[in-house]
Specification:
This protein is mainly alpha-helical. Helices cover about 40% and strands about 10% of the residues. The chain is globular, with a radius of gyration of 16 Å.
Length: about 190
């Protein structure tokens, strides 16, 4: 990947347009939407921060959720090509990588606990011992910034510049019936 991503890692409250874009990206209402955790270079949200519990009380440990369908598709290709298996094998062989990945796990838990605690729940993506979902690792890397999740950073570097064709969902063209906060949308 040769494009530059903004390093801004401060979550921002979603406005009505953001919520409409996320709804269109997911092809369903967002659940437990708290914030836009990262914006794609095209300007749309590409990672959202979700509440540790959905509005109905269901635990939801995936704090950072990748929403851009183009990025998700490209990550799916990496997964299909065996990248997760290779990364998991490297964790068993490389103590420095394993320590950095454990630190990423601790960062993920700390960020999730800062917005609401889910005692006993794992972080996400297979952390800290294996790689189970590159989507989560890339979302964490985008939300936290470079250098926090080494395997998320690696996967991100393998991706094509999915934003080059323009926004996956044009702002303003998405369903304008969204309300600006995912909390009041049906699950």
């Amino acid at each position: 990947m040769t494009g530059e991503f903004p390093v801004e890692t401060t979550p921002t409250a979603p406005d009505a347009a953001d919520t409409a874009v996320v709804r269109a990206q997911l092809d369903r209402p967002p659940r437990g939407l708290r914030a836009v955790a990262h914006r794609c270079p095209c300007g749309n949200p590409d990672v959202v921060e979700t509440a540790p519990r959905l509005p109905d009380g269901t635990p939801f440990p995936t704090t950072y959720y990748l929403t851009c369908p183009r990025a998700a598709s490209a990550i799916g290709t990496l997964e299909a090509n065996g990248v997760m298996k290779e990364m998991t094998a490297r964790l068993a062989e490389d103590p420095e990588l394993a320590a950095a990945y454990r630190a990423a796990h601790e960062d993920y838990i700390a960020r999730r606990d800062a917005i609401g605690v889910l005692p006993g729940f794992p972080s996400a993506g297979g952390m800290p011992d294996r790689v189970k979902c590159l989507h989560v690792l890339v979302a964490h890397s985008l939300a936290a910034g470079p250098g926090v999740n080494p395997l998320g950073d690696e996967a991100l570097a393998m991706l094509p510049e999915w934003w080059r064709k323009g926004p996956c969902v044009p702002r303003g063209a998405a369903d304008s019936s969204s309300t600006g906060s995912g909390e009041d949308l049906p699950a």
